[in-house]
């Protein structure tokens, strides 16, 4: 007769509460002949009075690494050679799950939200098991250093501001590939949270006419902003007979904006002090969609600007309006040193926005550079056309279009450029929407996003012209 095959220890670790099937779990734990990606043994209870600093924080390190990877178990009462020694009744009294949770979360941010804890008997001995599920709040980053030893023999158990993950049977600092996986998890969770946050709100609608029965005859329709099947389908109507509920809309709480800044903090950990954006193009657009809520110091602003201009050719003028004039001058000079087509087109647009004085400055440079060449680059001729048009609105000049031109939005609608020039705040909203759909994979709207960027923030950039000139 065949015995029912037990799930793997990894399958148990990934469950929300594997301790609900303690008998099967213990059977699986007994089959382990060594510590592994999902299992660590500890002989003593880490919160008992007799526990050493080393024992306490190696337990903490294991739990952090399990949370940042795929979950796992710390089995208490088993020594490092895998011998099941057991715990005394006094040990069990000290193995309070609340104290264990407090010990772990006192060393990290954010907290690990839920731990599973259970005790069991095996061969008439007491044991305890702590299950750490894979966390959706990764990365859990250490907040303080823990060291043991004295003088020159002093060595760290936990490093401050570190991300620990599981490497085989050991807990150690995360590798670049593990960082990438962690960021993907956070990105996916962020998308789900954005879709899920809705609340009821009153919607005042002016009555523009009367229909039969005295009810206003206006019917409003709402375009779906998501293809998530779990999101509600909404139609607004003035007809009480047709109405089945209240209007729902997405609520973006402060918690969501914290997520955006957490992504930037994670990038700083990954890049290890270098000014590199490691999270990829999609995540950049996600951050750009909520750009007003980024807690940006000079380092972050410079990083986001250089990423957009140098690496992914994305909207960046919002960051520039918050950069120093000296940094903008440096960007212009750097683009001239590395005169690839993309850099030069961006330089042309930027000096066009900044006004005639810088436009003349760039013209002098290009004339000297290309005077002897019959075949001049495309950006040279594009710049000549911009200068020859004499358009009063520098945004139109930078866009190389007219106020009567139209832009095609992701929802299928079109907007007139001239209308948006009169309403830059609305253009900024449309830019955020475009960044979201690019983040979700619709990359054909990148050029739209760049155009909306100029319309939204071109005037603010132009207002910095005198200060930038002083720094050239």
Instruction: Please state the overall shape, judged from the principal axes of the Cα atoms.
Output: elongated
Radius of gyration: 30 Å
Count of individual helical segments: 19
Strand content: 5-15%
How many distinct folded domains?
A: 3
Q: What is the average per-residue confidence, as pLDDT, rounded to a whole number? A: 82
Strand order of the largest sheet: 1-2-5-4
N- to C-terminal separation? 85 Å
Q: Could you characterize what this model shows?
A:
- The chain is α+β, with helices and mostly antiparallel strands.
- The chain has 3 domains: 9-150 and 157-174, 2-Layer Sandwich (Methyltransferase, Cobalt-precorrin-4 Transmethylase, Domain 2); 198-206 and 217-251, no CATH class; 255-470, no CATH class.
- It has helices at residues 9-14, 22-31, 53-68, 89-94, 97-105, 176-196, 254-271, 281-289, 298-312, 317-321, 325-337, 341-354, 356-370, 378-389, 394-399, 417-421, 424-439, 446-462, 465-470, and strands at residues 39-42, 72-76, 108-109, 116-122, 125-132, 141-142, 146-148, 155-158, 164-167, 170-173, 198-200, 219-221, 235-237, 248-250, 406-408, 414-416.
- The strands form 7 sheets. It has a 4-stranded mixed beta sheet. Strands 3-6 form a two-stranded antiparallel ribbon. The chain has a two-stranded antiparallel sheet with strand order 7-8.
- Mean pLDDT is 82; it is low at 197-226 and 246-254.
């Amino acid at each position: 007769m065949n015995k029912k095959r037990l799930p793997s220890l990894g399958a148990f670790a990934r469950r929300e509460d594997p301790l609900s099937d303690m008998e099967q779990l213990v059977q699986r734990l007994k089959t382990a002949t060594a510590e592994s990606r999902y299992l660590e043994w500890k002989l003593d209870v880490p919160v008992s009075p007799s526990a050493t600093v080393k024992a306490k924080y190696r337990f903490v390190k294991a739990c952090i690494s399990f949370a940042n990877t795929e979950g796992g178990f710390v089995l208490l009462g088993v020594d490092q050679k895998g011998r099941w020694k057991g715990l005394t009744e006094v040990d069990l009294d000290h193995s309070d799950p609340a104290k264990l949770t407090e010990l772990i979360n006192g060393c990290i941010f954010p907290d690990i939200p839920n731990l599973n804890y259970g005790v069991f008997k095996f061969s008439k001995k007491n044991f305890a098991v702590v299950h750490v599920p894979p966390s959706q709040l990764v990365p859990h980053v250490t907040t303080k250093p823990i060291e043991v030893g004295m003088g020159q023999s002093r060595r760290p158990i936990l490093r401050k501001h570190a991300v620990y993950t599981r490497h085989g049977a050991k807990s150690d600092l995360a590798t670049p590939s593990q960082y990438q996986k962690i960021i993907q998890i956070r990105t996916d969770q962020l998308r789900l949270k954005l879709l899920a946050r809705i609340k009821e709100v009153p919607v005042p609608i002016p009555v523009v006419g009367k229909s039969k029965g005295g009810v206003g005859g206006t019917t409003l329709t709402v375009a779906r902003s998501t293809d998530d099947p779990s999101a509600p389908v909404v139609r607004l109507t003035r007809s009480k007979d047709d109405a089945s509920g209240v209007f729902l809309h997405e609520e973006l709480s402060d918690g969501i904006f914290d997520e955006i800044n957490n992504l930037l903090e994670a990038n700083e950990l990954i890049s290890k002090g270098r000014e590199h954006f490691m999270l990829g193009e999609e995540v950049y657009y996600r951050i750009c969609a909520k750009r007003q809520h980024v807690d940006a110091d000079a380092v972050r602003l410079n990083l986001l600007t250089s990423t957009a201009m140098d690496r992914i050719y994305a909207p960046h003028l919002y960051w520039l309006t918050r950069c120093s004039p000296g940094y903008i001058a440096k960007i212009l000079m750097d683009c001239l040193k590395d005169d690839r087509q993309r850099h030069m087109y961006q330089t042309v647009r930027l000096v066009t926005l900044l006004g005639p004085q810088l436009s003349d400055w760039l013209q002098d440079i290009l004339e000297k550079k290309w005077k002897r060449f019959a075949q001049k680059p495309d950006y040279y001729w594009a710049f000549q056309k911009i200068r020859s048009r004499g358009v009063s609105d520098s945004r139109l000049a930078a866009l190389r279009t007219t106020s009567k031109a139209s832009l095609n939005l992701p929802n299928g609608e079109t907007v007139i450029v001239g209308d948006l020039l009169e309403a830059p705040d609305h253009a900024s909203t449309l830019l955020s929407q475009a960044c979201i759909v690019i983040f979700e994979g619709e990359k054909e709207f990148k050029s739209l996003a760049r155009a909306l960027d100029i319309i939204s923030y071109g005037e603010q950039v132009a207002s910095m012209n005198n200060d930038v000139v002083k720094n050239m």
